[in-house]
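Quick start: load a record and inspect it. Here is Histone deacetylase 10:
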Amino acid sequence: ALIKNGLADRCVSVPVREATDADILLVHSEEYLEAVKKTPYMTLEDLKEFTLQYGDVYFHPNIYHCAKLAAGAALQLVDSVMTGKVRNGMALVRPPGHHSMSSAANGFCVFNNVAIAAQYAKQKYGLKRVLIVDWDVHHGQGVQYCFEDDPSVLYFSWHRYEHQKFWPQLRESDYDSVGKEKGAGFNINVPWNKVGMKNSDYLSVFCHVLLPVAYEFCPDLVLVCAGFDSAIGDPEGEMCASPDIFAHLTHLLMNLAGGKLCAVLEVRLEKGDEEKSQEEQVWPEPPKRVTPPIRAALVLPNGVACPDGCESFGASEDADPVIVNKLRYVAAACNA
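Running the structure step on this input writes:
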């Protein structure tokens, strides 16, 4: 799709590296990292047993390698943006990360890519303030837990909540979880207690809740937990926002931090999920744009030919009164 739409040619491909142990330990415990390191050598039965200690996640012999690449890709993007090689960018990674906690995998996430990127940016580039925007339909509790007492990171998340009935079904996903100790006031949750949110709802929350706080916070870098299960067509998210709204949201965020923005893929709609949906929702094609007719009057000097497509008449001629009235209306509007 990136090639078909010509987007790949407009982008700079950033080389990927594996995250190092030191990178991962910025967020995760050494005990958890050492446990995940053993998964490539486990039997299928051992992997099943290992998986049972965590929630809603599956381990494969290759997942440790993939998770290191996912976190490393996010760090490479941060490096490219902070050094000015690119203005902004997006890391298309798997597995996702925003549910992963310090000592536990969760929700298909192994390492918390965005949380690691935030800590890495602060440590390497001396950033004082980092904004993390999470527009995935699920609450990124792993990111919240990581920074809930840290005033240098402002975390914002909107998510389907339905009065704690929607996964991950946590009390701390509600609106009154605003951070702890020094981090109080630097955690913003917008829980959706119903489905069907549209473009106008997303824009309203951005303009009336997030952006006023974000401008006051004045971040040095913006990171986005970019999950697209909050768009129309996702059978679990059940929201009605069109794909193009995320472009508008991104542009609004690019006015912060001098445009330094790194989006990292979280959850997206899979083709198999779409086929499972009993009632598929399709966003209609936008109507063809038609240039509206324009009427204007122009006084031409003597001897100047009338431009093509225009009609000329002089004061001595009997002009159509309808045309004269329309021109008077236009002139009055221009002088108002």
